[in-house]
Amino acid sequence: MSTTMNAPARHARSGPSKDMAVSLALGRRRKRRDRIMLWLALAATAIGLAFLVSILATLLWRGTQALSLEVFTDVTRPPGSEGGLANAIVGTLIQTALGTLIGAPIGLLVGTYLAEYAQGSRLGNAVRFVSDILLSAPSILIGLFVYQLLVLPFRGFSGIAGAVALAVIVIPIVVRTTEDMLQLIPNTLREATFALGAPKWKMILLVCYPAVRPGLITGVLLAVARIAGETAPLLFTSLGNLNWSTDLTKAMSSLPVTIYAYAGSPYSDWIALAWTGALLITVGVLFINIIARFALRQR
Predict the structure, then answer these.
(1) Is there a contact between 220 and 292 (Cβ–Cβ < 8 Å)?
(2) Do 83 and 74 contact (CB within 8 A), yes or no?
(3) Which end of the chain has fewer CB atoms surrounding its CB within 10 Å, N or C?
(4) Angle in degrees, 0-180, between the axes of helices 159-183 and 122-136, rounded to the nearest 10
């Protein structure tokens, strides 16, 4: 009888110990899985960094071989003439600057409309949907579109067509950044401005824009970094020019197109200049991204 009476007591004493053992086993299993996932993540990071370091090291090694003052002062020349990339650099700067000047204000106004005037409306949703599609569209399709719009009707490639193609790429980036930044502003700030009797346009211009100015600048800089290395749209629009040309109504040289042409050539001096041009674009884009991240960090 005493054995029968002590059985529940022994079960009561053994029950918590079994639960504790199970919980300890589950804890060890979780730690083991966590450690495995950590090592997998570290391995993936190491592989990605190895590829990145390899690309950058190759770019620095090959790009600095032909780097000289003539690269910035001399124009592109036939093979064996030891030319430079001055016309390509100037063409890239002109088309990138003009594309940004065209696309950034349009993107800013569209983003403002979506954030301040079209929340929940059908037109706003349609514009946002089209902007998102344009943001993910291949750049070669944009080049073909501008080719049909500006190149074929005027029967000639031009720097204006190249700038318009780059502007089309800039617009959705600035739209998305502007809308996201304006949505971060608390509604209480808007209500306080309305309470003072200010109209909505003045609230946007004098309150919202200054509050998110670093974010807006960051979006524009990211768009510039995106279009600085675009090749496909310029192949169908500005085409390229081996001579010095700043005429926007004619074919204009650019670094991406020059790199594309030189890298596929059988001439060693052109290949070396292609690596140098790739290095210049990489350094320029890296510099723009550093500025953008610094502006966002300050915000």
Answers:
(1) no
(2) yes
(3) N
(4) 130
Residues 41 and 152 in one domain: no
Q: How confident is the model over 150-158, as a mean pLDDT?
A: 93
Query: Are both 118 and 11 inside the same structural domain?
Result: no
Q: 171-211, pLDDT tens digit by residue?
A: 999 999 999 999 999 989 888 988 888 899 999 999 999 99
- The pTM for the full model equals 0.84
Say which residue the tokens 């993910």 belong to: 136
User: Under a CB-based contact definition with an 8 Å cutoff, are residues 217 and 63 in contact?
Assistant: no
In b/e form, how buried is each residue of 175-189, taking b as 16+ CB within 10 angstroms? bbbbbebbeebeeee
Query: Can you read off the two tokens belonging to residue 69?
Result: 């003052």
Residue whose tokens read 């949505």: 183
Residues 145 and 2 in one domain: no
What phi and psi values does residue 72 have, to the nearest 5 degrees?
Answer: -95, -10
The DSSP secondary structure of 119-168, one letter per residue, reads: TT-HHHHHHHHHHHHHHHS-HHHHHHHHIIIIIHHHTS--HHHHHHHHHH
Task: Please enumerate in sequence order all residues whose Cβ is within 8 A of that of 77, keeping only pairs 6 or more positions apart, or say none.
Answer: 83, 84, 242
Closest listed residue to residue 62, CA positions, set 54, 52, 72: 54
Domain extent for 28:
1-63
Same structural domain, 157 and 239 = yes
pLDDT at 16: 63
pLDDT above 70 covers a percentage of the chain that reads 93
Contact call for residues 64 and 279 (beta carbons, < 8 A) = yes
Helix axes 213-228, 159-183, angle to 10 degrees: 150
What backbone torsions phi and psi does residue 265 show, to the nearest 5 degrees? -85, 160
Contact 99, 166 (CB under 8 A): yes
